[in-house]
């Protein structure tokens, strides 16, 4: 088991996140696990429940360069990636980087943008680089995209295609706070004001070290069998259009490692996989009956797969 003092910065980050996002400890833990696993996060929920605040809180708590991009129907890929403008003095084109060149990028209401603009994120999220005018530009490290999404039934939304959804390691929902958390928010200090005075509990170098530690968390062969059994079950059932891809299986194992590290363990146990399986799988599995994600079907499938 990792020494408690070595994990103290992670515990400090979680404590600070919980002070900003009241009553949602599991969701803040999943968000941090996603970052530790070097994935990207999709938050889907109704407006006003703290999606943007969570993104701000993560960046402020980790001391990372942060940019927020409000996606709209008239947004162009260049608004995200950047553009080359001719410099008369130097007689050459000069690249002006867009907001994607940040360590934490909040793609706010991503499904309000057209598919063309949504696809501009694909290379950045997968390759951690962008190509423009024949030149490839590497993005900063760490690079973490947090996208917020409104429910598909709301007016003016463009559903994310499966290829885009698969780039997000986790999908979470925040939901409404319980009565105690909501009362604390009503009577307490404004969360945005608190974020303006936030001091980082960790820096980028420490975060990179923990990301490397996650990759060294031990996974026993029997645990790999369990991950394969879960993925195979999604492919063999008639409940979904398609099963989980190998990329999803790799992501499931990576975030299970991060979840184990946050729990203070240097090896993954089945409970770690079960804790993150829903957020990893639900947005990737469209039910045949409704052509939409069905969390209850994913939960039932997990219950039906025996632990080796």
Keywords:
Rossmann fold, 308 residues, alpha/beta, 5-stranded parallel β-sheet, 9 strands, 2 domains, two-stranded antiparallel sheet, Helicase, Ruva Protein, domain 3
Would you kindly provide a written description of the structure presented here, covering whatever features stand out?
- The protein is of the alpha/beta class.
- The chain has 2 domains: 1-215, P-loop containing nucleotide triphosphate hydrolases (Rossmann fold); 217-308, Helicase, Ruva Protein, domain 3, CATH 1.10.8.80.
- 46% of the residues lie in helices and 14% in strands.
- It contains 13 helices and 9 strands.
- It has helices at residues 8-20, 25-36, 51-62, 77-81, 115-127, 162-165, 179-187, 191-196, 204-215, 221-236, 246-262, 270-281, 295-304, and strands spanning 41-44, 66-70, 82-87, 92-97, 104-108, 129-132, 135-138, 144-149, 170-172.
- The strands form 3 sheets. The chain has a 5-stranded parallel sheet. The protein has a two-stranded antiparallel ribbon with strand order 3-4.
- Helix 9 (204-215) packs across helix 11.
- The radius of gyration is 20 Å and the shape is globular.
- The two termini are 23 Å apart.
- The relative contact order is 0.16.
- The model has no long low-confidence stretch (mean pLDDT 88).
Would you kindly provide a brief summary of this structure?
The protein is an alpha/beta fold. 46% of the residues lie in helices and 14% in strands.
